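In the current project phase, we have settled on a layout for protein records. One protein thus recorded is set out beneath this paragraph:
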Amino acid sequence: MARTFDIQLPHYPRGYHLITQEIISRLPRLPEHGLLLAFIKHTSAALTLNENADPDVRHDFTTFFDKIVPDGMTGFRHTLEGPDDMSAHIKASLLGASVMIPIKDYKLNLGTWQGIYLCEFRDGGDKRKISITIL
């Protein structure tokens, strides 16, 4: 039977933040086998799985995404909340709102170098809510 609950992350500044341990620390006892779905309930932030050992990954994420979708890009109309408004929405769409992770032996079955990232695309991003479903 599926279980769903929400967690709220504290405010994180703009950037790419490893939140694996923060997620794990808030999980109930996991089943022996199953799936965990984490879904962010926002349109200007994203979740992704990626390399968790080298901090240069975060720098390179920023370099890449800011190059392909810069803040204040010419032609954007949706700028009511500032120059990072529409660029944040596009970046969030590119990376996605959810990650699904297998559960094995009562633990998340992540690869050796995999971690869960919160990708915060707004300068003034607020606390973020994540819905967790365990299947």
